[in-house]
Amino acid sequence: MRRFYISRLVLCLFLALFLFPGKILAADETRIPDGIYAQGISLGGMTRSEATQALDEYFEAIAASSFRLTCMDGQTVEIPISEWGLTWDSNGTVRQALRMASSGRLIHRYKDLMNLKHGNLYLETHYDVDYDMLRYSLAEAVAEHDNPAVNATIALQSDGSFAITQEGTNGVVTDEDATIALINEQLNDNFGQQMSATAITRTDTPSITRDELLMIKDQLGTFTTNYSESSKNRKTNIEIATGNLNGLVVLPGETISISETIKPRTEENGYVLAAQYSSGESEQALGGGICQVSTTIYNALIRAEIQIDERHNHSMVVSYVDWGTDAAIADTAKDLIFTNNLQNPIYIYGKADGDYLTFSIYGVEYRPANRTVEFVAKTTHEEWPKEKKVKYSDEYKKGTSHTSGTKRPEVTATLTKVVYVDGVETERELMHTDYYMASPIIITMGTG
Question: Is the pTM higher than 0.85?
């Protein structure tokens, strides 16, 4: 019996030498047997690196091509497949092909190789796309070809009533889920060829309807601040930011970022240079003054008892509200974010007339008439700087000085919400405790 196994081994070795004449190759020089294909590419006779390169070049060419999509308006767009995050496993395919020549029991390899003599072996390379990237790419491509629904709009009239200014209408848009399913079919059936599909559409209904807006009638909260002594530029910024918020309708459950809604503080959006706080000092910046807008609407929102998700105080105290009741905005560092936690839409009314800034929140009154709310700001620590701050700068001539800044105290302040029913206190909630750094008068001594 032992001689029989030895004879079979000798036979296998003889057949291997017959099928692969010449010296035995090193592991990294092993070549793929003839008759093995992947993605239509003949890998026969290739080394590992050659086969991997061939498959990579094949997929790179596909990634550099486009998917042709016919939009709902009949126009065709070319969507770059490179935007879909296409990945592939060429190494796995090559490993599978090389197993035929260099791994497994010799007798099994012999059988596999003999099978290749009578037909070819076709391997599939695993590939994938990032469907989040695909969805975003699709949405970008069809955006200007879709016909989205138009929301109903409402406006506050001079007599205090509301009027519908635009009726909501249905639209027709690309059904992203159904269209992505079609694209996926093309990827499965025609990968490597010119792939195309016709977008599937759906009816798009308004997210804000006339009936919802007609329910808005009650003032839930209001607040006013004075900005009459502001510079011309600061007034401009306040009025631009207020205009971006005025008339905003917020649906139940919808979250709003004030910083995003008032738009980036750029010249293109109309903002100009004015004073603002930065690292405990005042500086000129585009949009200076907008914190008075966020502060004023913050106070209106809390009186409407709207959910506040994010709010920050200033680094130093401000003069237009009680300490502990401000809400600062600083690009991406600070924002005022709120969510409509009510059962009905709310309407934001904002007005800046050059002297006074007012924000009012309108909706459907949900609180009993005998319930009232008060917000109590309390200063728990106040310490004024005793000395002036001296700086040196070569911007001014030696022997001269320049005075700037405003003397402000170091402050700790709290804000408490107090609820009364029939004039009797029933609830008391500490909303936040704020710290403000001191700000001395700054004297800059010239060294230039």
Answer: no
